[in-house]
Structure formats: C-alpha cells, structure tokens
Amino acid sequence: MSQQELNVESRQTSGKVAARQLRRAGKLPAVLYGHGETPVHLSVGAKEFSDLLSHHGSRSLLVLKGASTETAIIKTIARHPVKGIPATIDFQRVSRNERITAKVPILVVNEPLDVKSGDGLLVQSLHEIEISALPAEMPEHITVDISHLVLNGPAVHISEVDIPAGITVLTSGEEAIAAVNPPKKVDLDAPMDEADAAIEAEGQVKAEELAASNAQNATVAEEITAQATHEVDAEHGSSPKRGGEGNHDGRGETHSA
C-alpha cells in the first residue's frame, strides 16, 4: 500500500447546511474516527482529493496533515447520485503496527488459450477478496494467474492463489474465482419460453385492442359527419334528389336529364 499525504482542516460545524456551504467553497466534508477516539470533523480540498483518487486510487495509506498529523485509510466515499463525484468521506485511523482488514480487488492475468482462440468464455465469479495485513503491507490488489484454465475445466479457487507474505486471507478458500465456459449460443429456431410467449401474447392483445379502438373511432367520425351534413341540408331547405327527377333552371322550369 502506497503512502500519500493529504491536507485537511478541522471544522466545528456539521450537518447538511454546513456540508453544502463547504462544497460551494470547493471543499468536501469528512470525518476521522477509530481507535476508540472521538470522531473529528474535517474538510478536504475537493480538487486535491480528486487528484489523489486519480493518481493513487482509494487504497493508499494516508498521512492527514492538519492541526495534528494522523495516519488513516479511506473507509468509505459517498458520491453524488447523479454526478458521481465525491460528496463526503470517512477516514479510519490506523496504526502502522496494527493489522487492518480490507477488501481488495482481484486482478486476473494471462488469458487462457481457449479464451484467446474464441472457443471459450472467461467467467469471473469473484472480484474482491477480504484480507488482513499491516497498513504498509496492504496490497492494491491480489494477482491471480489464470493461464492454466481450460474449456469446461475446473475453476481456480482462492486456496490456489499465491498470497504474498504477511497477508492473511479471510475469504473462504473454497470460493471460486474464475473458469472457462463454452460461449452461450442463441438458437433462433428454439421454441419461446413462457415469459417470451406471454410478452408476445400481450403485444398481440394490445394490437387487437388498438385496431378495435381505431375502428370504433372511425365509425363515430362517420356518424358525426353524416349528422352534420343532414343538419346543413335541413338549414338550407334542400333535400337529396331522387333518381329520374329533372334539374330546375332559374326560371322554375324542369329539364329532362
């Protein structure tokens, strides 16, 4: 675990209003706790903290420099639900001589031949491992060699991983990390399952309901048009001509068609 310095300031106020004011000023609210001591409210420069995360990640051993110097790790980072940027930080005090517990990521290396050829698909079922170590010996990740995996062969388990000295694994050794499985093939001619059939049936019902509704609307529109035409004819005193009747000219005389 690398060691980094981070400037902090103590603060006397807490709560949502105080946190909002800090963020407007380009700072982040933070809390330092641990070792049975009273939690201390801190503020951290937002840009400095973001730079720390960008260059060193969240698993560094930190020396918090303020009114006093504290050794700590980042315990949790609460992020803005939309922007995804850090909103609040929890630091945990640590002693260089006391072991700490943490979950670190698993890094798989050396792609298996069956995956390279496209015959197999790598399926990683475990992405973190819980370990215990002194702060200075806490690794950024645990490396797992998967070059020996073969298609439909056994998975690699935690018990098979080469763990660096000074680290105690707390996750069960029986946990599977990764295996190589056959690629999933999609059979376009396969019968639909019940869920797909239900979705298609529902879509068909909705289509029929829509067609019936459109037909009903068209009928109503025709009736309204016919009624309007009848009312206009009645208003002007005209009536439909019957077959065989002549056309009248302006003099009232009848001419045969």
- Helix and strand content put the structural class at alpha+beta
What is the H-and-E element order?
EHEEHEEEEHEEEEEEHEE
Radius of gyration over all CA atoms, rounded: 38 Å
What's the pLDDT, averaged over the residues?
83
Per DSSP E runs of 2 or more residues, the count of β-strands stands at 15
CATH architecture of the largest domain: Beta Barrel
Gap from first CA to last CA: 107 Å
The CATH superfamily of the largest domain is Ribosomal Protein L25, Chain P
Strand content: 25-35%
Number of domains: 3
Instruction: Tell me about the largest β-sheet.
Output: 6 strands, mixed, barrel
Which runs of at least 5 residues are low in confidence (pLDDT < 50)?
A: 238-257
Q: What is the name of the CATH class of the largest domain?
A: Mainly Beta
Work out the helicity level. 25-40%
